[in-house]
């Protein structure tokens, strides 16, 4: 087959192409030797330098503008002279030391320990001889050799929270900050820890007890783990793979932030597996107090309980990224704030409001012209800024949302954010701000401090309008309305209320049923909050007295008793200090006492004052099994008996469990005096 280019016109072919919006025509050179370029004719000849301007390219062995040889030219030569190597002279005629280019001759690349330009060993070379670098989490430094001899920063993190490229760990104790090679090992945990992690207890060679915490582990399941950090008596690890028989309760976590967040340590278990683990934790805590025979044996499940989208309250912290941007999320396992825009345990409405809040406070909207700062980031005024954001949602067909900004100092900027959020989310009906500049991690303060004085711009001495511990309504109402068990409750921003309304109804029924034996007798509800248990108990028994530490919650409890039409009295103050007044108010009546303290349990001296009331029964609601076991042992030592204990799964995927224990006194004679029949509410 003949080629058409061999016959016909000798005119060279042309090819049209575009560059920067212009068209060019490039012609292939013909056999006659004509050599045309797009900018003119090329000089004929066989020279290697292909210059389009007619002047051949200067070579390394030719002279420069001053006529001298050009030394140190990094361009690869096309002639006989090879590229300058590391052992050749530099511009000053001395050996060119410190050249980081890899040589092509016998001399290899300079490594650590060789001479640098100043003749001293090059200690600041970040390159390792093997070509690898130590990497790890962004923002932390490892012990290495940087330019400042203080180490260099690690790289980022994988989405699942495992450090990318992290080949070592920090030592704790006296050798804090030291870098070691990370270890891997195979082990089998033996029991559950109180925080929802698997535990292995061992003994070192010197006879000291050593505790190994296994994140995402399951007792009895053999697994390959990686050591994250290690102290003198404790080692923290995470599961890499299961090497033995896989536990039948193991599941793939639904959330990709499980490892980074750490809020749901049991998400890798089925619900039945979680219940078994929680009962095991409670049993171990009761055994530690020698009351293991009274630990609950099952977790009572609510009919309409949901393992996902069950939390109606969300509390997020605020900090800044390394770039200085505001970040909202939960405090993760490693101490930093982890954004959770797709948290699976909070309601969809809370996720929607959280995204809107994050959009406006992080400066992504043009509606917010001023920058919202994180608390403590202003060096001139460290008590200014946003600390926390608390979002609460009511249940029911028409849910309402309450939003509260916890800040160090009041600013009209938060009112602008509140208005923008309410326009985007019409379900938000209440937005407030709480002033908290007290050191620590407490979100809400119970007491309001004395107003501080400051000098105004006019030079006048004034008192601050919103002192530490106070609340201020930015827009909307002061409260939202919640319904549990057919009773209606007004809830303020700083009031305590159960986060799972379905299980709260189950808890409410259990307490009322436990008190039914002494129907008609007075009820004393300590740590009553806004009256979640006080209101139904007052309706059942005709009269109730509630004691709550917060003044705002006490005011809402008064309103809730009035709204539901029950006879109840409430007092605000410390429970231990208030029981003397409660005893005088009872005037010889034998009540049924209900307590619902915080996780730490009853304060010192409160149990003795409860016994002094001569109660018919004590109903103890607890979210802290350790404290309940401690107080159970104290009551047993005084001759009381345990009637029953029950457990409720208020917080799926966590290690927490809600419990109700019923105690009977050794000797009691019910009083003929009962509560007043008329509806009397003390204001």
Question: Could you please describe the fold and organization of this structure?
Answer:
It is built from 10 helices and 31 strands. With 683 residues, it is α+β, with helices and mostly antiparallel strands. The strands form 8 sheets. The protein has an 8-stranded mixed beta sheet with strand order 13-30-31-29-28-25-26-27, with helices on both faces. A 7-stranded mixed beta sheet has the order 16-15-14-17-18-19-22, covered by helices on one side. Strands 7-11-12-10-9-8 form a 6-stranded mixed beta sheet. Helix 2 crosses helix 10. The longest helix is centred in the middle third of the chain and has 18 residues, at 271-288. Residues 1-15, 17-22, 27-52, 73-79, 98-110, 124-180 and 677-683 have low confidence and may be disordered.
- How would you write the strand order of the largest sheet? 13-30-31-29-28-25-26-27
Compute the gyration radius: what is it? 37 Å
Structural class: alpha+beta
Quaternary state reads single chain
Shape: globular
Q: How many separate helices?
A: 10
Helix-strand layout with pairing:
Elements: E1 14-19, E2 22-27, E3 36-37, E4 40-41, E5 168-170, E6 179-181, E7 184-187, E8 191-192, E9 198-203, E10 209-215, E11 223-230, E12 234-242, H1 258-261, H2 271-288, E13 299-300, E14 313-320, E15 326-331, E16 337-338, H3 348-361, E17 386-393, E18 401-407, H4 413-424, E19 428-435, E20 453-455, E21 461-463, E22 471-476, E23 480-484, E24 487-491, H5 501-515, E25 523-526, H6 534-541, E26 544-548, H7 551-564, E27 568-572, H8 575-586, E28 592-595, H9 606-612, E29 617-622, H10 625-637, E30 641-648, E31 658-664
Parallel strand pairs: 10-12, 13-30, 18-19, 25-26, 25-28, 26-27, 28-29
Antiparallel strand pairs: 1-2, 3-4, 5-6, 7-11, 8-9, 9-10, 11-12, 14-15, 14-17, 15-16, 17-18, 19-22, 20-21, 23-24, 29-31, 30-31
Helix pairs in contact: 2-10, 3-4, 8-9
């Amino acid at each position: 087959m003949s080629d058409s280019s061999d016959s016909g016109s000798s005119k060279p072919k042309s090819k049209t192409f575009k560059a920067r919006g212009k068209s060019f025509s490039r012609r292939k050179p013909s056999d006659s030797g004509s050599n045309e370029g797009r900018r003119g004719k090329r000089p004929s000849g066989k020279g290697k330098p292909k210059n389009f301007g007619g002047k051949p390219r200067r070579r390394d062995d030719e002279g420069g503008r001053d006529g001298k040889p050009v030394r140190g030219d990094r361009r690869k030569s096309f002639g006989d002279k090879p590229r300058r190597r590391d052992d050749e002279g530099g511009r000053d005629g001395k050996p060119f030391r410190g050249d980081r280019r890899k040589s092509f001759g016998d001399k290899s690349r300079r490594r650590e320990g060789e001479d640098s330009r100043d003749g001293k060993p090059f200690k600041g070379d970040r390159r390792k001889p093997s070509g690898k670098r130590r990497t790890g989490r962004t923002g932390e430094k490892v012990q290495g050799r940087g330019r400042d001899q203080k180490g260099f920063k690690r790289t980022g993190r994988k989405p699942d929270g495992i450090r990318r490229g992290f080949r070592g760990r920090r030592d704790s104790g006296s050798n804090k900050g030291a870098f070691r090679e990370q270890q891997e090992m195979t082990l089998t945990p033996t029991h559950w820890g109180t925080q929802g992690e698997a535990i292995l207890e061992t003994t070192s060679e010197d006879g000291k007890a050593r505790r190994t915490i296994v994140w995402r582990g399951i007792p009895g399941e053999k697994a390959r783990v990686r050591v994250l950090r290690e102290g003198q008596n404790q080692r923290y690890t995470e599961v890499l793979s299961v090497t033995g028989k896989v536990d039948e309760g193991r599941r793939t976590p639904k959330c990709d932030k499980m490892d980074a967040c750490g809020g749901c340590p049991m998400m890798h278990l089925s619900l039945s597996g979680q219940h078994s683990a929680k009962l095991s934790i409670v049993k171990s805590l009761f055994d530690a107090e020698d009351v293991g025979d009274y630990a609950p044996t099952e977790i009572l499940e609510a009919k309409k309980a949901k393992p996902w989208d069950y939390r109606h309250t969300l509390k997020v912290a605020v900090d800044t990224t390394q770039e200085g941007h505001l970040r909202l999320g939960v405090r993760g396992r490693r101490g930093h704030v982890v954004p959770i825009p797709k948290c699976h345990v909070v309601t969809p409405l809370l996720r929607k409001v959280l995204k809107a809040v994050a959009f406006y406070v992080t400066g992504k909207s043009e509606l917010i012209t001023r920058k919202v700062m994180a608390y403590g980031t202003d060096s001139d005024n460290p008590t200014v800024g946003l600390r926390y954001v608390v979002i609460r949602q009511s249940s029911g067909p028409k849910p309402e949302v309450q939003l509260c900004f916890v800040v160090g100092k009041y600013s009209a900027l938060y009112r602008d954010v509140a208005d923008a959020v309410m326009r985007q989310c019409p379900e938000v009906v209440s937005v407030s701000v709480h002033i908290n500049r007290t050191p620590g991690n407490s979100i809400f303060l119970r007491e309001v401090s004395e107003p501080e004085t400051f000098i105004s711009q006019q030079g006048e001495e004034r008192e601050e309008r919103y002192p530490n511990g106070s609340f201020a309504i930015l827009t909307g109402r002061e409260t939202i309305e919640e319904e549990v068990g057919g009773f209606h409750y007004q809830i303020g921003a700083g009031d305590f209320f159960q986060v799972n309304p379905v299980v709260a109804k189950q808890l409410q029924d259990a307490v009322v049923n436990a008190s039914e034996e002494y129907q008609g007798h007075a009820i004393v509800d300590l740590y009553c909050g806004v009256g979640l248990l006080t209101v139904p108990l007052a309706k059942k028994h005709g009269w109730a007295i509630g004691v709550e530490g917060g003044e705002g919650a006490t005011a809402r409890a008064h309103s809730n008793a009035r709204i539901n039409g029950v006879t109840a009295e409430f007092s605000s103050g410390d429970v231990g200090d208030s029981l003397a007044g409660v005893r005088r108010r009872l005037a010889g009546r034998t009540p049924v006492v209900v307590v619902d303290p915080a996780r730490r349990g009853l304060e010192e001296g409160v149990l003795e004052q409860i016994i002094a009331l001569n109660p018919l029964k004590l109903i103890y609601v607890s979210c802290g099994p350790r404290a309940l076991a401690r107080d159970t042992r104290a009551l047993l030592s005084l001759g009381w008996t345990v009637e029953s204990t029950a457990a409720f799964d208020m917080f799926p995927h966590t290690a927490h469990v809600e419990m109700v224990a019923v105690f009977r006194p050794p000797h009691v004679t019910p009083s003929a005096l009962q509560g007043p029949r008329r509806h009397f509410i003390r204001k």
